[in-house]
Each structure stands twice: as C-alpha cells, then as structure tokens.
Amino acid sequence: xxxxxxxxxxxxxxxxxxxxxxxxxxxxxxxxxxxxxxxxxxxxxxxxxxxxxxxxxxxxxxxxxxxxxxxxxxxxxxxxxxxxxxxxxxxxxxxxxxxxxxxxxxxxxxxxxxxxxxxxxxxxxxxxxxxxxxxxxxxxxxxxxxxxxxxxxxxxxxxxxxxxxxxxxxxxxxxxxxxxxxxxxxxxxxxxxxxxxxxxxxxxxxxxxxxxxxxxxxxxxxxxxxxxxxxxxxxxxxxxxxxxxxxxxxxxxxxxxxxxxxxxxxxxxxxxxxxxxxxxxxxxxxxxxxxxxxxxxxxxxxxxxxxxxxxxxxxxxxxxxxxxxxxxxx
Length: 330
Description:
- This protein is α+β, with helices and mostly antiparallel strands.
- It is built from 12 helices and 13 strands.
- The strands form 4 sheets. A 5-stranded antiparallel beta sheet has the order 8-7-6-5-9.
C-alpha cells in the first residue's frame, strides 16, 4: 500500500540519513519515478523532506525532524513486541537496556496499541537456542567488544577444527551470534575475511593500533554470504547420505527428535513394532556412528555398504572389548 511505502521512506531517511532516489527505489522495490512522486506527496503533507542534485546530493529530512510511533500499524506493533530470549544481548551486557527500551516503546504507544502488544507477548515467544545447547565460554567478550567498537587490531589464539592452536592478527570488524554461538569477524593482513568461533579462543590481545574500516563492508551481507559458502563447501566435502532403515518402536523417538524434516516414514509399525524409514544423514560416517548408537533397535535395509560398515565396526568393537578383557584377566 502507498501509505506504508510513504512511511517506509520517512523511516529509512530518519534512520539512515541522506539516501539516493535510486537506493530508496531498490529498497522499496519501485521505480525512481515512483519515489519522486512519493517525495512530492510527503512534502505536500507537511513532512520536511528535500532533494538535492549533484554528487553530494540525495533525498533527506530536516535534521530536527523525528518520527513518532503514532503511525505504527498492528503488524509493526506485533513485530516490535513479540517475546524473545535475550541471551545474545545478555552476553553483550545489554539485557537491561533492551528491557528499558521495550518499556519506553510500550509507554509511547496508544492504549489500543498497548493492548495489541500485550496480546502478542502472551501468545508468541521466540527461543533462539537449540535443544541441549551447552553455553560456551565467553571470557573474552569484553576485549572483543572493545576492539570491535574502537576499530582495533587484535591477536588471537584459536583452535581450528582440523588443526592445533594457531595465532592470528586481525582487524576486528564485528561480532555475530548464531543460535547463541558467538563468532568474531576479522580481516587478516592479506585482506582475507575470516570468522572465528569465540568459544575456541584461548587468548585475545587488543592492540593499540587501529585500522581504517572498509566503508563498503556490511556485516549482515558478509555473514549471509559466509554462511552460504560454508554450507556449500560442507556439502561438497561431506555430501548428504540417505539410507532406508527398519526401526523398532524402542528407537522411533530418535528420528522426530533429531531428524525432523530429514526423514520419511515409508511404513507404519507392524505387529512386532518395526517400521520403515527413509533418513538423510550428514554423511556416511554420520549415518554409521548414529546407527551404532541405536544398537539392536535399528537395521539397515539399504545401501548395502552402510550395512557392512555398521557390521564391521560392531565386530571391531566386540573384538577390542574381548582383547581388553583378556589383558585385564592376565
């Protein structure tokens, strides 16, 4: 709707300052001509919005103009006040500030909007943590936050997944929390960007040297691209592995618990409690390891290579156990 678009223009300019008409058009998914018509409509309505030509020009609001909350529609109120865990904000020391800002926003709403916000809070709650997720150590968060805020270089000691401890000097560009797991985003001396899991750091030194921040760097865009690249690389190195299994009722709980969306039930349980499932694992090794953990409550129908791998590993475990028992007796 045009009214929503007009409000979006004002909010974008209020939040980001001077923008180009082309940038606004791209953000809103309309033509530049439409943006200029909207600017004219806002000006006629009394909004102090201006345009300026030239390299340093653009669209901007009067510097003293501020947007009130009276223009929020019900969906926008719901989005602001949906209940969610504040774990990452707590890690940054901002939990109390978040609660205070929510109270101030709530107080600024009309009576009808407050009622709508309270309805939302009592009906929807977003918990970003995973099941059984263990909180990682965040001993270095104060140092990392300082480095990020002050555009400082840092030296870290980091334990990579496939190697021993490494020492790196980085430009500290940002911090990202993914499902309550924190990463520090840094640029190495050769210009390469890297993401380092904070829980795998054993030392952080903030240097006095500052770096000049790349004006074209966008943290959200970088993280999305990095996640996509990581997922593509993981799939290339460890292709997903699909198997058909017979599962007893004693282990049936495991698949909806840990493989939701990654399995299909091919047959219901028979009189003896066995059903057939088609399951997608992260890799062949992942399938073998998980099925061994389920013991005699699961059988591999196909592929035959997985059935052999499970059997050979089980025999090796038994042989190792028997050998250890003989050594203990001797």
